[in-house]
Amino acid sequence: MHKLFSISIAIATTALMAACSNANKATGGGANNEADLYKTWRFVEIDGLPVDTAGLRTPAELTFEKTDSRVFGSAGCNRITGGFKLEAPNKLSFTPLAATKMMCMEKMEYESKFFGVTDKIKTWSVVDGVLTLGAEDGKTLVRLMAK
């Protein structure tokens, strides 16, 4: 009977530890793997605005490159380029970003929203193929999905 009780406790403890680990990852509290950042990401949401990719001039995506800590892409119209800085496992900030100056008749709000939040982005996390860029207070500013 004592052996059965000990096995039950061990199973329950293992299940509880796994649940806590998954909850920690879901809130961005888990350790980020820097290698997960270096790929191309499609915009899903920018400051609460879902990104509708239909009819965009260029793909709404960002690519993070480890070499020279560069980022490039587009929010649907103009090309974006610049740099970023990783300071800790979950700290990320953009250096001033540059963009071309083409005028697109539709969906310019994605670019406006993105450039409106870039200076507020201070954190990052990758969970289940989704990159979340957030403010220091934990607010989600940009969500991107691995391409």
UniProtKB/TrEMBL annotation:
Residues 1-25 form the signal peptide. Residues 36-144 form the DUF306 domain. Gene3D superfamilies: 2.40.128.270. Keywords: Signal. The keyword Signal applies. This is META domain-containing protein.
